[in-house]
Amino acid sequence: MGATGDRRERIYPSDRVTLREVGLRDGLQLVKTFPDSAAKRAWLHHEHGAGVRHFEIGSFLPPTRFPQFADVRQMVEAVAALEGGHSAALALNERGAEEAVQTAVGEIVCVVSATEEHSQANMRRSRAEAVGLVRRVAEMRDAVAPGKIVNAGLAMSFGCSISGAVAPEEVLRLAEDCLAAGADIVGAADTVGYAGPRQVGQLSAALDRLCGNRPFILHLHDTRGMGIANAAAALDNGARVLDGSLGGLGGCPFAPGATGNVVFEDLVYLCETMGFRTGIDLTGLAAARQVAEGSMPEDVFYGALAKSGPPQNMEWRA
Amino acid sequence: MGATGDRRERIYPSDRVTLREVGLRDGLQLVKTFPDSAAKRAWLHHEHGAGVRHFEIGSFLPPTRFPQFADVRQMVEAVAALEGGHSAALALNERGAEEAVQTAVGEIVCVVSATEEHSQANMRRSRAEAVGLVRRVAEMRDAVAPGKIVNAGLAMSFGCSISGAVAPEEVLRLAEDCLAAGADIVGAADTVGYAGPRQVGQLSAALDRLCGNRPFILHLHDTRGMGIANAAAALDNGARVLDGSLGGLGGCPFAPGATGNVVFEDLVYLCETMGFRTGIDLTGLAAARQVAEGSMPEDVFYGALAKSGPPQNMEWRA
């Protein structure tokens, strides 16, 4: 399969489900308290102890504007020190990408809006320019750090807070453009939580056909309570990489008080009930949650499993 | 189709999804404050205004032990006064059934445990005796009130708090026994919230085969966060009647602090995103929720949609 396929297969094995914990990145976008570096490292260590291996831990952004990610380099090092740990961080412009390729980060995440309106309003650039950045990042990676994964996340893939409905053909075309530009993996994000399971199932099946033997990510939010149902639909339709955040941290900028990312703990439980082994221990995850909660006393941690625990008197696997 | 089929088809039309609001019954099993009759009638009226037609409103039980259902007869009358309103109430023994058939209640709900252990521990009778009560209720209905629906709910259908795993064959055998005993409709209940979507999908498909042109109910709880995913799997596999409770009221006796029934508002949204018309207006439902919350200030109302609202700038149907 060549160097590119080797890299992908090593980080995202095609024969199992991979869960990416994005709490330390997406989860910290809208919280009241930013945990300090020591608290973030404790969170990491506990999750690693529970079996989590894929961590999205920050953005290469100006620390003056995004103080929660000022320690992104230290977080990259912290993940690198964990056995089997894989770190991902966002690079939203060329300067960020130049910084990222110089670090030990395992994966550089670029964001492309699925709609022109959101791309212009949020990123002040066209979608074509955003795909151009994916190409630049892949070129830098090839030149400087060939082991790194380049991930292109397609924001607003299931509906846009500005322009409303999004045609799946647009998402698929952009996914194809990103792969052609050198991305190893693309992801469809329900950034504002508009999706229902039928829609997620249909786009997942189409992405599965488009991506062939390459993996793709579903980044789902629980803004309207559909997060776990959407994840189940994605898994039923070929998705094998899903994002979630510890306690569902993350919120939604367009719906104050609404829930954020899919709750990671509940996502692990879902996968296990569906017969997908995650390698993640829910008791260990509960300990990580306690650590994280202790460092963010003003923030609400969501999730049903944290209150109930899994069934104690039966094997809860499919 | 005969009188029996006519009765079923009128109350549970086979060409659409029917949502049963069980908040006024199952929802009030574990709450801190019991709303008074006036508050319950206001709740009913607002939900009816929003398009809800199927209400489970109480149990025919001794009012001294179950004060929250002391007004079950008045609630039956309140639903009967609503255009198109259909009331359901539990009868857990012969005395309750004798009372129920004398009222205007539209549906008498009997409960049969899926496991012998739970049946003995919770109802102090065997499953065979519980099926016998279904037969007695159907006979009373035939003799006294032939328009009424007899509903047999199978508790612990997806796992039992006492005996653990439950074989689907047991549930199907009991469902068949209940139909043979004269039930119009059977329901599989995830009483303690053990189920995942694969399991729910498989049992729904099997019930669909068993029931033929007769409807069946999925009564799902959200104890472990799988409620909406389980509902989606049920709908994907032939279920057309689902239960939920306003704000997810109900809790779980075996998991203090855990969430209860599937949140009715989120369930309506799920159905609509999947292309099933419910006839229920979410704005009206939000008003009903406010009324109910006002009458139960100490209780937690769950649900994501109540915080976010549906997408405002796109048609959110599948």
TrEMBL record, chains A, B:
Gene3D superfamilies: Aldolase class I. Residues 17-286 form the Pyruvate carboxyltransferase domain. The keyword Lyase applies. InterPro entries: Aldolase_TIM, HMGL, PYR_CT. SUPFAM superfamilies: Aldolase (SSF51569). It comes from the Bacteria. Pfam families: HMGL-like. PROSITE patterns: PYR_CT. Keywords: Lyase, Metal-binding. GO terms for molecular function: lyase activity. This is Hydroxymethylglutaryl-CoA lyase.
